[in-house]
Design a protein that fits this description.
Number of strands: 4
Bound molecules: flavin mononucleotide
Strand content: 5-15%
CATH superfamily of one domain: NADH Oxidase
CATH topology of one domain: NADH Oxidase
Distance between the termini: 34 Å
CATH architecture of one domain: 3-Layer(aba) Sandwich
Radius of gyration: 18 Å
Shape: globular
Helix content: 40-55%
Number of helices: 8
Oligomer: single chain
Strand order of the largest sheet: 1-2-4-3
CATH class of one domain: Alpha Beta
Amino acid sequence: MNILDAIRDRQSIRSFKKEPIEREIIEKILNFAKFAPSGGNTQPWKVYVLNSEIMENLEKAVLDNIDNGVSEKPNFNIYPQPMSDHLKERVKECGKLMYGALKIEKDDIEGRLDQLKRNFSFFGAPIGMIITVEKEVDLNGWGHVGHFIQNICLASMEFGLGTCLQESWSMYPETVKNTLQFNDSEILWCGIALGYPDDTHPINNYRTSREEVNKFTKFF
Ligand SMILES: Cc1cc2nc3c(=O)[nH]c(=O)nc-3n(C[C@H](O)[C@H](O)[C@H](O)COP(=O)(O)O)c2cc1C
């Protein structure tokens, strides 16, 4: 697949076929993703590739939290607080497209909650990954991990696979840490749902918009 096509055509996939993914393919994807650049080549990322048993345990633990009104302190603000109007507009458009595709109305709180909960089954993907960052790195290091996770998304496409990055997991950092037993030196960033896209599902059949280059670029 051409690099430019992959960058343009990547989209978040939130419905997957049941088809399993061979471990060899996942290893290949990670073997390409690892070539991401990082300052001083620090490579401050860790990946946890979950089997179905751990995915089920995680889902159950998080859904129990939600159903029992248990909340945890996220490691970062998922959205800015407060959020400026131009960012709010983009978030609003993004929600409108997704809920619109699912025919979930604005005031359908339960429908929206059900969709949020689907994050915690990795949207039915056969593979879920959890990404952590070495706690000691500063803001720039999170950026380096960003290159790595984008590489996972793009490399997956070469194998016909789709992805959805999921910071929703950061709503329950302690539950994820307790289930995966990762080291205190790591901090949870996000999950990645990985699988063969269900192309017939409406949630995979819309595209989010992007600003024009002249809106975010200044040429000197
Ligand atoms: C770090 C990161 C975390 C994200 N977390 C979630 C998430 O928890 N749930 C979700 O449905 N989408 C999540 N997304 C997907 C974004 O909503 C999506 O990338 C954005 O709307 C642009 O759409 P596109 O990916 O289809 O181009 C996340 C994206 C990124 C980069």
